[in-house]
Amino acid sequence: METRAANVRAEPKSPRISSVVFATFARQQSHLFPWVPVCLGAGIGLYFATSSEPTTWHLAGLAATLSALWLVAYGLGQHRASWVSVTLWVLTLVLAGTTVASLRAKAVAAPVLSYRYYGPIEGRIVSIDKSASEKMRLTLDHVRLSRVPPHRTPFRVRVSLHGDDIGITFAPGDTVLTTGHLGPPAGPVEPGGFDFQRHLWFQQLGALGYTRNPMLRLAPAGSAQGFSLWLYSFRLALSTAIKSRMSDEEGPFAAAIITGDRADLDPKLLDRLRASNLAHLLAISGLHMGLLTGAVFAVIRIGLSAVPQLALRLNLRKVAAVGALIAAVLYLGVSGANVATQRAFIMVTVMLLAICVERPALSLRAVAIAAFIVLIITPEALVGPGFQMSFAATTALVAVFAVIRDRGLFLILPKWLSGAAALLLSSFIAGAATAPYGAAHFNQVAQYGLLANLLSVPVMGLVVMPGALLAGCLAPLGLEGIGLWGMELGLAWILRVADLVSGLDGSTRAIVAPGPAVLPLVTLGGLMLCIWQGTGRLVGLVPVFVAFGLWHNVERPAVLISETGRLIGIVQNGERALNKPKGDGFSARVWLENDGDIADQAEAATRTGFSPNHIRTQVAGRKLVFNAANPEKIDIAEACATHDIVVLPRVETPLPEGCTGWTALDFSKGGAVAIYTTKAGLRYENSRSRQGNRLWVSHQRKRTQ
Fold first, then answer.
1. Whole-model pTM?
2. Where are the domains of the chain?
3. Which of 150-159, 232-241, 320-329, 634-643 has the least mean pLDDT?
4. DSSP letters along 347-398, please?
């Protein structure tokens, strides 16, 4: 009996599903670190998605408590993973991400102008660029505004110069004076749209405006202007020198990829680059930093290999890595060190340091370390297209080529063919990985982007960036023209490719804006496919397919009303008709782009349903009246009695009780309005309700000083 009982007890039991799942997760322990920035990013995303400002110290206290509990659970588990320790670990990182984002938002807090201002504007120039309308634009700090106390004066303001005579030639560090208009940053042009207020909050820009008067120089830049302004002045001088040595198209292109100065880029050229999916070549990001440091690494290593005494005594890989790192630091300073360049610099630095400590340079751990550092320093980068697209491409490339390396797939090809195959595959992978993010943020897909990149990226790597490096090395000898000549040839080729590809029929396809859950699901699925080990990674296809299903069935508002209340767009017969061909042009352009509509405002204004100023139409069977001008010509009581929705943007008083609609008072408090059609009727939403009670939300007051 005892023997039989022992045999019975020895029979294996069928494993429970939870045990199988955890065993699979436990096998991933050597690959867990890449999930650290993922969890941190989830917490940062949670901070930006919430509708109210969280209390930082409560978050920090909760994160510390969870961290302590994780240590206890980890210790009790004898340093082995368990469901409890893993869950606490994930929650701790998520809360840490939310805390980091909250601390960052409070650290950059600066006054935001809360009303329309007209009067003297004085400040020091810290940036010079051009607006979308090709007007010179100055960013000022050390701001002084008449009748505005210092504690309410914005830290920085940005002023566009609209006058025919702008007065003088400006330089960074100049103290200038003009009389102009300023106002708070505008909110999203539609509920759930791009939050311009949040974007400028992290730049500490508290007011935007324009002037039609000359800008006067009160004091020139002094010698004590600081290193940052000196470096900016050097960059502008370098940009001017480059443009003076090249043609009108190649010169501004070269200045953009070396110094980050895009002021003189032709808007039509930008359109051609976007239509051919080559606009990423303008951004000083991972591609440029990687090409430059790669060229420096190769030159140093090959050059030192030619000296036997050095080749036998030195670790040339480490020496070349240090030299490439120095070149990366110099490029970071010359290019302006914007957020995208900082991100690329951090990624390259991590990889070069990995070489110095004899670790794999191209690995998911290296990418994870770079992402972790970027998110800690600038958590707001998470919601921007630059961070999303660069890390999506890098993660996908590292993951796919790691599989190819481990399985020796390129070994079956001839050596001359493996390089071409690697180029083709890398372009395809990077394009596929970044396509959802590019389509979501820019509402278009370049259908021949792969062809354009195959014809252009090799030229950028083999001609343009080496030419820039050669020009920099020969500049002390006055022979920089040799390198600039090579750069110009390469850039001319790239621009011709852009012309060719953008001119093909159907080169671009307009894409409707996705809902808020789409990109997080795409990201989750992509990370599972790249980071997870074994066949279990295929589970990542599920959230990707769900995301594209949601994207395909996304609902656009039946009616959109701008923040000013003077532009309205109604979907009729599958197209959005606008009430006027001019005015509120930015809102009109974004609405049509988010609809996946290639029409411009003038064309959309010719669609049926509107007359210029007074509109009476129907939305889902509801009568709507709209009056953008001459409010005295409309009887408000009669309009409310005979119509279901009343829009009166020039009326400063609220509507009578029981009347559905908006006046100027409502728009100043709530911002842009969207109306959705549902089975239960119409659903109304404004942009401020979607933004919530956040630090960067400006509560504008309708008065001028």
1. 0.85
2. 24-108, 233-510, 518-551, 559-671
3. 634-643
4. HHHHHHHHHHTTS-SSSHHHHHHHHHHHHHH-GGGGGSHHHHHHHHHHHHHH
